[in-house]
Queue: 3 jobs
Job 1
Amino acid sequence: MLEVTSFSLSGTPLLSRTVVERAEELRSDEDALRAGWADAKLLKVDRRGQVPVADGALVFHPAADLGPAPVSGAVFLGVRDDRHVWAVRVLAQTGEVADLRRVGDRLDDADADLMVSAVALLNWHDQAGFSAVDGSASEPTMSGWSRISSATGHEEFPRTDPAVICLVHDGGDQVLLARQPVWPERRFSVLAGFVEAGESLESCVVREIREEVGVDVRDIRYLGSQPWPFPRSLMLGFAAVADPAQSLEFRDGEIGEARWFTRDEVRAALEVGDWASADEVPLLLPGSISIARGMLEGWAQG
């Protein structure tokens, strides 16, 4: 059997394109933020994570339309083309809107960077209105990059939930793919799961693969990472080797079906498109917005 254990992501994950200057030094500089607000750009994000778009690009609004200074609830995203960029939650949008799953693969690097940060930060604020330490109401500070307890002054920072996503292969020409019970038939992806407290990333890979499909893995190797703000995860990509002869067991109820696929089958599926394809093909794979796509493309290229 041909050993193909060394491969990499096919490219930088689309949601990992970090190019905008975050300008952390400005987050607590109220004078600089107020001065920059006059010609700052504002991204409006609704509760479904949708933003205004036109011709495959984000549509920004003048921040000054909201008032002469940064408004409560707005989050500072950084500096782009010498202008401050902010985001704010809105209840409703007008015109064409889209979320990251729909438009993420069409955005340029800066737009993608800004939208991922905006969605992740605003999602955190939606769920962090009360201190996790003392239960009191908290208020945004540091231009949206932390929250302060109104009772004790305890400061809390945006939460990110780490999750591993692992391409399991046999060291040769087969890869193990699975689908959740709620997914349509033929829609498969690589395996993933959240990191538990007190657990290393490598230990999580071993545990999650064993829990989900009953397979033991070895030769665990890191590939790359991608923010996944749905609502606030960080996907950490790995590859690992397993024995196709080992029986598959769906132990935790999260997997409805899992199968070993050949490299030719994966290549054919990648050529068809992604989950959105209407073609009657035996295998549909994740779209380009997911790090899973880059992992599968890298493996398929051999």
Job 2
Amino acid sequence: MNDLIDRLAAALGPGGVLTESADIAPFGTDWRGLYANSPRAVLRPRDADGVAASVRLCAEAGVAIVPQGGNTSLVAGAVPSRPGAEFVLSLARLNRVRAIDRAGLSMIAEAGVTLLRAQEEAAEAGALLPLSINSEGSAQLGGVLSTNAGGNNTLRFGNARDLILGLEVVLPDGTLWNGLRLLRKDNTGYALKHLFAGAEGTLGIITAAALKLYRAPRERQTCLCALPGIDAVLDLFARLRDEDESALYAFEYISGPAMALNARHMPDFRLPFAEPAAHYVLAELATTRRAASLRETLESVLAGALEHGTIADAAIAESETQRRDFWAIREHIAESQKREGTSVKNDVSVPIASVPDLLDRTRAMLTARYPGARMAAFGHIGDGNIHLNVIQPEGEEPGAFDGRAEDLMEDVNAIVAGLGGSFSAEHGVGMIKRPAFAHWRAAAERDAMRRIKDALDPRGIMNPGKLF
């Protein structure tokens, strides 16, 4: 192992390999703090060739590699599965935006570029990179794409996979595959780019990506609404979608308990309503059309919803600052829940019409089987993805609730399965959801996935302990 580290240090140059305990410890702990498996070393290549050299040397020695971007995974997909036995390969120094094509609406950026920076550089070029997630300030493109992240604009633009034109990937033997094509049409055999999106680093390491951009909106209108019931939430969604589906960029749901945690833990929290509500919606309309008059459209829809009793109150952002304040409420929910104590996170999806049943059945199950547990649901209701998180009862020891997490997830998953849903809508599988994975895919599907894994990574060195 020491000889391998010496060879890696020679290949990667100064600062390319970290081995001191204090330096490598942060790379072994996941965002939720559920795992603390310190790596044997941390590799920090500067470019794709450095990644290829690192993988080639590790493959020859049979040493496992864990690719890591911003380490924002909520399923422990980017940290070692065993302490002291695996190398973390950080993509942080691959941080160049290589090109932006305004005419072709595309961008080529390296894996270590944060999603927020990619958005900003696209905006500077007069374009839009529509992928948006709460952790975009620290999440890096390589991880975002390898987990096929969803986010706030999936309703309009799809998941990360839908934005990929091409990829540059280091394969498990150290081969560097350059598939950075900018073509919108390329029907020539297997679309390998889709193989690596969602594979969670188990088939190779994404080092750069060619991404679709869109024209920047000329107008945005954002509103925060208070609603009396979950059926009213779906009614408001239908009203906005039916009025102008192409303009509906986001439709985010926040339950009353989730909003209450924000009020408790979010600095400078301000809700623009006189009274709290049982449910809330944050909706955003945007368009590239000239003189589209979205403000009038939104006001008309909200007025009709108010008259019908669909909403109890609503506030439309009067400035970009207020728009950001509204989005800050949505984006702070995960942090507020983390500060409240231990929570069991269920990132599930069901058909949109089944969302009320999902919430009702889960609430009843918790009352019967986990007295005092608090359901703080929120999510992307426009695509049926609900973060159905359950927080420990007040006063209960966190360790005691942790011990019931697996049973609780199984109980939630049973409800989701009965509604024809998925146990992981956008977070992936990682280590946390690996036990469920085996039960949610038919034997033929699991076997096909395993054959792909064995064909590309026969020694099993790429992100071991994830998915399988």
Job 3
Amino acid sequence: MSMRPVIVIGAGIIGASITYHLAVRGADVTLVDAGLPGAGATRHSFGWIGRSPGDSSPAGELRALGRSHWERLAREVRGLEVHWSGALVWGEHFAGRGPRDTHAATREPRLVEPPRHAEFRPDDGWVDPVRATESLISAAREHGASVRFGAPVTRLVTTRDGAVDGVELGQEILAASTVAVAAGVGSTALCATAGVNLPMLSSPVVMVRLRASSGLVRGIVANDQFEARQDVDGTVLIPLDYDKHTSTDELRRTGEEALRVFMASFTGADDATLVSAEIGWRPMMADEKPRVGYAEASGLYVAVAHPGITLASVIGHAAAEEILARTDRDEPAAHRSPGTA
């Protein structure tokens, strides 16, 4: 391998996973980001790890592998907490092919009106996206990775023949054997500096955070009216569709409506309060498929995917394999089992 390091751009969950998987294999890797770990799209992620039962599509298979890799990471990475709480889902939007479950009142005893028929997905779980990102980066550093935060990349550096061989940080240039772009919605602009087209969708989401008494929501609850999960400190996350909000007042009203729905849905939620309602931008390719692999410009590796949390574990593993092998396989490494080296 070249003496020049691999540079990973983007300290979100996918960039952190790639950096960790490279570092644990002994690679010389540097992670750079303009902000702090998980400060971008990762912060606004719901953190749900799972897939619909019976989904045999490539995306469904990748989600299943993502779960297996999260199990592995929970064993490997000190401080990484994966909560395998299961998910209780019902309604038209979440209707799957799993068996009907009639124990909703037992699964989620604080529901005011438990559904008579729901689907319980026992293999689903969640992570706190920012804490998980920080844990992966901390573990990467323990294995020798370097980090540069507060270091915005202004452009990718290319050779005369168009190969990517470094990044520009203001007046500083860092040379690289491979540059992995995992910068979320900023990936398009970065790739363009190397003449690479990376078409992405504009996919905003509103993430509402509430503060409530601990223990109101046991796992993930999702239906046509709302989705919710509760962290161990009492924080409740409710993701909502973006409705062309144009002011902070509109966002606040959306958050207040989510609070009312939550209070009406769970007993003991009368003291719940609104913490924030913020817009996050989900990295999503125009064809809505993950884009993971070497780009047409030599030395440039791209990792953009939604849902980023579920897929970050398997993408990190696959990207490290391909970058260290300097090849793009016909069968992506992401589709192989977690134990495959």
